[in-house]
Design brief:
Layout: H1 8-14, H2 33-83, H3 88-108
Helix pairs in contact: 2-3
């Protein structure tokens, strides 16, 4: 029988089919031509993925911190406005300035 890679019947007869879960293997240093052909791309992809993940963690931390600070500043603003109603517009401006700058930093992070 002639081996024709494009014939579905031949492929079905000669190709083994495996089922089951994929086993995650640790990344190890490669040697030889495989390392030469795939090493750069794999390393760059891994670096890009790690960098993206770290940026996302930083953005989440910045957002959580900004939310906490906005809540604290809003509470302080409310209590100061109650104690000194004449300066309430100034307190609001200060709180709004912080919040708008925090939003800008989060969007640009």
């Amino acid at each position: 029988m002639e081996n024709n890679l494009y014939d579905p019947n031949t492929m079905h007869e000669e190709v083994e089919h495996y089922t089951g879960e994929v086993i995650q293997t640790p990344v190890v240093k490669q040697y030889g031509i495989g390392a030469w052909l795939a090493g750069y791309t794999t390393t760059e992809l891994r670096r890009a993925a790690l960098l993206d993940a770290e940026k996302e963690r930083c953005r989440a931390y910045l957002t959580a911190t900004a939310l906490q600070h906005a809540a604290i500043l809003s509470g302080v603003e409310a209590s100061l406005a109650k104690a000194n109603p004449g300066a309430s517009s100034r307190f609001k401006e200060i709180t709004d300035a912080y919040c708008s700058k925090a939003v800008e930093r989060i969007k640009n992070a």
